[in-house]
Amino acid sequence: MAEPFSVPVTVRGYETDVQGHLNQSVYLQYAEHGRWSLLHASGISQATLAERRVGPVVLETTIRYWRELLAGDEVEVTCAFVWGEGRSFRVEQTIRKTDGTVAAEITAVCGLMDLTERRLVSGPREALKSLATDTGPFEL
Q1: Which end of the chain, N or C, is less surrounded by CB atoms within 10 Å?
Q2: Which secondary structure element, helix H or strand E, spans residue 113, and what is its range?
């Protein structure tokens, strides 16, 4: 199996809290950045999604915090889509320091919403595949 898609991020000082570690809400932003980076690497832009009247939505998120992150830490945010049979799919992500230490694991249940009908699209895997110019990052 190939390595999952990843994007580098540097923890910025203004993202830290009074204890000096990365604020818990920023982990969600890093995860979102990883997901959008994967979509862009696949050739799917926000403009393309808007033209097709669909958009990704997060239905549930779980974060497991393992190690603190401090300002200046260099990390990679991985992103792997795990497809099922229904209208939703999972996105599994790891935030890892450059020395290999896992700082957090994030799992999100997501879907692709039809923006006209305001319902989840059936077959989100096929829908995203049809929009992608490069399906490699999705491992489709």
Answers
A1: N
A2: strand 102-114
**Cα dist from 127 to 52, 82, 111, 118, whole Å:** 10, 15, 11, 16
Q: What is the pTM of this model?
A: 0.94
CB 79 within 8 A of CB 34: yes
**Structural domains present in the chain:** 5-134 (3.10.129.10)
Q: Using CB atoms within 10 Å of the CB of residue 32, give its burial: 0 to 12 exposed, 13 to 18 middle, 19+ buried.
A: middle
Strand-pair category, 102-114 with 119-120: antiparallel
Q: Which token pair is 83? A: 């497809």
Q: Are 9 and 77 in contact (CB under 8 A)?
A: yes
What are the tens digits of pLDDT across the range 81-108?
Answer: 999 999 999 999 999 999 999 999 999 9
